[in-house]
């Protein structure tokens, strides 16, 4: 069997995890890491590269042109670079594994999709999503009819983020960075995995019922308590083309982080999937629990899945760019519906000291506010929250270009 060769663009920040995992899997004979590209190598990356004899290029385009013997490129760079880098990699004849979110704007995702189609190459996206064990369990429970007709999915993410988080990179919390869209807000970056997972589960539930479901309309209320451009506390409702309603809640201003989860509600029961891949099912007056964790970590699963797809052994990518496109469609729609990011105008906002390990802003009682809205399936304004303002629904029918109504600056 040929050992597939990888290239990595971006070795610092989250790229450190890719670098370490690629090297670990090289030791196991699963793949080989031929070369990396980064403008500056961290001390860690420089030592790995030197120790292993991995070639390093400052210019990723030079790497793409000189490393033609490689098979796929992992891209773990700032969001605003994703489209150009993946299109260059696909056009140079490589398959791609792209970090999430695929791009900030739907037109950029569409340009990557077109490039992949023209090149006949795969483009997978590294969204974390329910394990394949969890997906097949949830698919079979949905297909069995045990939960009755499934009408609603809800996602909830209560997270604490420190000042260091908002200073981690120059584009943190920005809508635009160096003239490029980045949209680094709560649901577009740290909880993008959960929002994607909710859309993926809606897609799966529709599939097992013989339907398709795509985001059709979004209503979103986006706020910030931290001194950032983008959002840190948001709620949205996504109406799907098959009539299913999704609601999603996030804050980065909680006292403590809790396990992110998605609740699937049917007419006869409910199911919850947690970020820890635990599944609980409520039906017929009983609760059942399943542990759906898999032994391989997420990066290993994503590389192995892409390699199987390249070898023609896996009919489906875990997260294809087509599937990830639904995320960008919903996320862009959320920004359009909200029109702008609004401040949380409450006496209950507490800004911490500037110490790196201190939490950023905390909103008094945000945990209860979000949990009540989650239980009711309502947006903040519909719950009568004092700082909340109503937003208009935004239609996604022929939506092709972001932004239209959203105000990047005001
Ligand atoms: N899957 C996850 O759980 C997860 C977690 C965190 C971040 N991410 C994603 O990873 C990506 C990178 O985020 P980050 O926080 O690591 O960003 P970052 O700003 O820390 O940059 C990552 C690396 O890219 C390098 N880089 C920048 N421009 C480059 C260029 N022109 N050529 C080559 N290298 C270049 C930087 O030097 C750095 O080493 C983003 O898409 C982010 O959303 C994913």
Topology:
Elements: E1 4-9, H1 15-27, E2 31-37, H2 43-52, E3 55-57, H3 60-66, E4 72-75, H4 82-91, E5 95-99, H5 106-119, E6 123-126, H6 132-144, E7 150-158, H7 163-166, E8 176-177, E9 180-181, H8 192-208, E10 215-224, E11 233-240, E12 245-251, E13 261-266, E14 269-274, E15 278-283, E16 286-291, H9 298-310, H10 321-338, E17 342-343, E18 349-351, E19 361-363, H11 366-376, E20 394-395
Parallel strand pairs: 1-2, 1-4, 2-3, 4-5, 5-6, 7-12, 10-17
Antiparallel strand pairs: 7-13, 8-9, 10-11, 10-20, 11-12, 13-14, 14-15, 15-16, 18-19
Helix pairs in contact: 4-5, 5-10, 6-8, 8-10
The structure holds nicotinamide-adenine-dinucleotide.
Residues 9-15, 37-40, 60, 76-79, 81, 99-100, 126, 169, 189 line the site of nicotinamide-adenine-dinucleotide.
Describe the structure.
The chain has helices spanning 15-27, 43-52, 60-66, 82-91, 106-119, 132-144, 163-166, 192-208, 298-310, 321-338, 366-376, and strands at 4-9, 31-37, 55-57, 72-75, 95-99, 123-126, 150-158, 176-177, 180-181, 215-224, 233-240, 245-251, 261-266, 269-274, 278-283, 286-291, 342-343, 349-351, 361-363, 394-395. It is an alpha/beta fold and 410 residues long. It folds into 2 domains: 4-126, Rossmann fold (3-Layer(aba) Sandwich); 132-294 and 321-395, 2-Layer Sandwich (Dihydrodipicolinate Reductase, domain 2). Strand 13 and strand 14 form a beta hairpin. The longest helix is centred in the last third of the chain and has 18 residues, at 321-338. The structure holds nicotinamide-adenine-dinucleotide (NAD). Residues 9-15, 37-40, 60, 76-79, 81, 99-100, 126, 169, 189 line the site of nicotinamide-adenine-dinucleotide. Nicotinamide-adenine-dinucleotide binds at residues 9-15, 37-40, 60, 76-79, 81, 99-100, 126, 169, 189.
